[in-house]
Amino acid sequence: MKKCRRKPSAPAIEIKSLRKNQEIRVPEVRFIDPDNGLNEVMDIEKALKIAEEEELDLVEVSPLANPPVVKLINYDSYRYQQKKLILKQKQSIKKTEVKGMRLSPRIDENDLNTKVKQGLKFLEKGHKVKLDILLRGREAQHSEMAIGVIQSYIDKIQENININVEQSPQKIGRLITAIIGAKS
Predict the structure, then answer these.
(1) How far apart (Å, rounded) are the C-alpha atoms in residues 47 and 34?
(2) Which residues, 6 or more positions from 100, have their beta carbon under 8 angstroms from its beta carbon?
(3) Residue 143 belongs to domain with CATH number
(4) pTM of the entire predicted model
(5) What secondary structure does DSSP assign to the chain, as a single string?
(6) 84 and 105, same structural domain?
């Protein structure tokens, strides 16, 4: 069986479908024309005739109102504006990732400084950093050394950037973890 190597396409943006022109099946509507300042209740036939004369679409914007509210607009332009608005809202959402950093209880000072530099890069980009130390063998009996390594890492980071310790170093079995993030 052959595997498809094509990238998945971006998900289609769904816009709430509104009834327009001949799809509106009520006898009376509240007609709104923003250009001419019209806002009145009229028969659907009269509203459709006005829309045809203006060469615009009659779109039902509030179907639950009594009578339903229709607006005289260019429907394709309206859909385009709605898509742009939805995309802008999606882009404004900030995504934060948690980056993992594995340390050792016997880590050398220079290696720790290298890890600190990498952690600073992650924090400056707005990510959180999860610090892990896996205790092996007899290291499990000296967990205070591992907690001291994490604490020295946090102290070195705090010298350069203002951080928030979201989870203080805690031992879970043979793993000691802590999570830090940049203060905004």
Answers:
(1) 14
(2) 129, 130, 132
(3) 3.30.110.10
(4) 0.53
(5) -PPP-PPPPPPPPP-----BGGG---SEEEEEETTTTEEEEEEHHHHHHHHHHHT-EEEEEETTSSSPEEEEE-HHHHHHHHHHHHHHHHHHSPP--EEEEEE-TT--HHHHHHHHHHHHHHHHTT-EEEEEEE--GGGGGGHHHHHHHHHHHHHHHHHHS-EEEEEEEEEETTEEEEEEEE--
(6) no
**Residue 61 lies in domain:** 21-88
Structural domain count of the chain: 2
Within 10 angstroms of residue 132's Cβ, the number of other Cβ atoms is 15
Q: What CATH number did the domain enclosing 44 receive?
A: 3.10.20.80
In a domain, 7, yes or no: no
Token readout for 32 is 């709104």
CA distance 16 to 82: 9
Per-residue model confidence as pLDDT tens for the chain (184 residues): 566 667 666 555 555 667 777 788 888 888 887 777 677 888 888 888 888 888 888 888 877 778 888 888 888 888 888 889 888 888 877 777 899 999 999 999 999 999 999 999 999 988 999 999 999 988 888 888 999 999 999 999 999 888 888 989 999 888 999 999 988 6
